[in-house]
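User: My instructor asked us to take a sequence, write out its structure as tokens, and then describe one feature of it. I'm not sure where to start. Here is the sequence I was given:
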Amino acid sequence: MAVTVNIYYTGTNGSARRFAQEMEESGTAHKIRTIEGNICYEYYFPMNDPETVMLKDSWTSQAAIDELHASPMMDVITELREKYDLHMKVERYVSDSGPVDEKFIRK
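Assistant: Let's start with the prediction itself. The structure tokens for your sequence are:
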């Protein structure tokens, strides 16, 4: 059962993009990607909202997410959120074990 969390960081005057850039340049995002159970930790930029950045944060289990939350990287993330005065909206998805609709997926 994979758990995916989409986090929308919104700021002003480009602060959300600067936050994502600092997460990447500081190596914090890379460290998170190396935690066992991480599937995806990637930032995306909505075309219609230049003040928002979406983080797709996907894990093999809730236990893997809990490991991130207990790590020193969480303190770095929290400090950067405050530094850039970001507000958040969160969507959480849990995968099911049902069949994938293969006939609708173009590869």
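For the description part of your assignment, you could build on this observation: The domain at 3-94 is CATH 3.30.70.100 (Alpha-Beta Plaits). Try explaining in your own words what that tells you about the chain.
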